[in-house]
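Notes continue from the previous slide.

Worked example: a multi-chain complex. Inputs as given:
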Amino acid sequence: MEINGEFLEESVRELRQYFRSGSTRSVTWRKNQLTALLDLVHKNEDAISESLYQDLGKHPVEAFRDEIGAIGKSATYSLSCVEKWMAPKKSDIPLLFFPAKGEVLAEALGVVLIFSSWNFPIMLALDPLIGAIAAGNVVVIKPSEQAPACSSFLANTIPRYLDSNAIRVIEGGAAVSQQLLLQKWDKIFFTGSPRVARFVMSAAAKNLTPVTLELGGKCPAILDSLTNPSDFKLAVKRIVGGKWGPCSGQACIGIDYVLVEEKVSSHLVELLKKIVRRFYGDNPLESKVISRIVNKQNFTRLCNLLKDPLVAASIVHGGSVEEKHLFIEPTILLDPPLDADVMTEEIFGPLLPIITVNKIGESIEFINSRPKPLAIYAFTKDETLKRRILTETSSGSVTFNDTMVQFLCDTLPFGGVGQSGFGRYHGKYSFDTFSHEKAVMHRSLCLEIEPRYPPWSKFKLEFLRLAYKLNYFGLLLHILGLKRYK
Amino acid sequence: MSSSTDADEKKKESFNAEAASLLVNNLRATFASGTTRSYEWRASQLKALIKLCDAHEQQIIDALYSDLAKPPLETVAYEIAMFKNSCKAALKELKRWMTSEKVKTSIATFPSTAEIVSEPLGVVLVISAWNYPFLLSLEPVIGAIAAGNALVLKPSEIAPATSSLLAKLLGEYLDNSCTRVVEGAVDETSALLQQKWDKIFYTGNGRVGRIVMAAAAKHLTPVVLELGGKSPVVVDSNIDLKVATRRIIAGKWGCNNGQACVSPDYIITTKDYAPKLVDSLKAELEKFYGKNPLESKDLSRIVNSNHFGRLTKFLDDEKVSGKIVFGGEKDESKLRISPTILLDIPRNSLIMREEIFGPLLPIITVDKLEESFDVINSGTKPLAAYLFTTNNKLKEQFVMNISAGGLVVNDTALHLAVNTLPFGGVGESGVGAYHGKFSFDAFSHKKAVLYRSFLGDAPVRYPPYTNIKMRLLKALVGGGLLGIIRALFGLS
């Protein structure tokens, strides 16, 4: 069927009507949908793996670790907590207003739009969906057309498991996205690039639609000179895992570049080469353990980054590309020029620049002179350095002595700051991001405070002054005529 | 002599995009130097704000009287006292707000510890409104400063006396290297909006709210938009009518003569009860404002002739002719309109299509009170909604089914004074919330921090990938010690 403006308008209208009917409000509906989602994921693991392999050449273990397993965990956690999250939260009301009761009630926003990205096409569609469902909304998911097998999978499979009156998948490219943005939404959740995020937010502004933007940035890994050689080796192992492990560097929280002291840089390069060879074999393309580049456009973009002669001269490992399979092998650059594209743009690929500094503390200024990234990684045992990184830099998150795993922590908010985005999700934050926190105050019609009402007088003014200070004793004296006032 | 000419020259110099850019760069440099980060700095600024209030109360009263003919008691109670309270509460809680929050971690990241650290966003812009020009300028400033930001405040030019008083007093009392006031109108605001801010906090109307958000979109700047809407009051018949009436009056005409974002905009009640309600309103209004409310010193005036004209148009709408049951008097020279009640007006009249923001109170009548929910839900989501009833079931239905920024049962507007409740809108009434800790949070970035150690590394994470690694991984990600043990022993 043709996806045009009329069709979308009608869809949104239907979804809004269903939302108004109240069906998505009940805890039963929400739990049923979350259970159905778990079912969908468990029963279709192979199909999901296959789609991810088709779109990105992802290995099944990577597919499980980063997408399937993560979704399962997220849905299970939300299922066990949703009722708790839905319960109103009591707020303390000052005695002055006695008798009064205050609470904050989480209420569904209504009809929400989720834009997923191509690099984790299943997870970035379903993880926000979990939050939207838990909060009682109706949803349209727009998967990325750059991952067509996954998009197709979602479009075909979601209607078989979830309530299609409430949750719909709309496939398509930029034209469809633009049409979607013309509709009126109660929330838009976007994962992708800053460039497209600007369009999304501008469109949202027309309807005062709140947005969450999960973007990216150049996520640095600071590698301190660790005195214990096995610590250093472990750190490098984790760096390799955090660079090429997730979708061959095409990840918003993947390591973009490494900062290291000049004196250990050659040791680092040696270790990196060794570990890369151990993980990915002598012929990484054949090992089938690393994802490929998503499409021709990104492949060309990454190749162009290496074409700069000064950048090419800085290659200390790798550098070979295979156009037919859209494959670029793990490539390490040592001190490429800082004004080259590879160091001014988010790489989003398997190229790892190593930037050397004299003293590791200089990393802080280096990072601060660039846009705020989604994540900062720091391998160090130096408590002072840790403190400095925490207080002197700004990023979505900071992880010490590891990479990527902050993603698995349901109690930590996942989101950016500055150019890496705003808003957050995961765990309860997903629920909150798709909710309106409604303040509710209950008062009784007895026990009146007369001085609230005109005609005004000096007495009433003094009363209100004391009232605001919550000076109950003073109030008592004042009412009894025992207090002097100006 | 020459210094005053210089000052005049400076004022005439328009504040254009270049000047705005320079200002932001200066503030960014100060922010980068770390001045605003310490607890001591933040506390000193908040204390200075309290001193400002104490030392200049009369000037503030005078400025608000000049801008709005606001009764001194309203200024003291609803602008100054409320603001001072917020400052004091912030001072009391600041250390606690600044402390990072430890969070639990699961077996998936074992061994690890985690916390959430609040950090300032950087350089923020606060754009204020004209109706509570003192409070709505400085209340967000409390949050911005408490959270450790540098800021620019742009007060509303429609309340010029307060605007220039704020510029003068903030210049005297606060650290000018971190906090600045830019006065002006559309041109100056546009120049400011072109810059890259780390947050924009806007209080005002939906039309300008859209402009602010669109400008913010260019720089991916997060926003808080405190807007308005038509806040309805549903009145049941099983209530203490006198108390309810007085509370409605206090929230409507007692709040800047209806020019407040949470003022009751219109009433919905049953056809049967309406006459009683009208009589009660008339009686109490006379007690509060006398027989000649147009002259009452206890009511604010209409802010300017623009708004006076806007409000008059509502009364001139032929759909409401003959519906005025009380008031309706106007004095254009003094910009005054008396408390006016309209009964049984058609739903498609002009006054029911826009936020009134003035001393006109329409009453819509329905056959059964339950119909009021449909009336409210057929419009856009308001900033506040009120219900007067003793029927607990109706209260429950109201709370569950009416979506608004905030709800109050059996009173009006009071929730503003409770700083443990988030104050903000939803849908057309706004994005984001503030007051109390919510203000601090609105101007903070909550940074997730995970601490891992070098002890123990799960080889399952790394290639080459094998079947046993797959099994272990499933168990690890799925959580559950038992699952992990079983996987280790090849039993899954």
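Summary box: Chain B has three domains: 17-227+436-446, 232-425, 459-489. The two ends of chain B are 90 Å apart (CA to CA).
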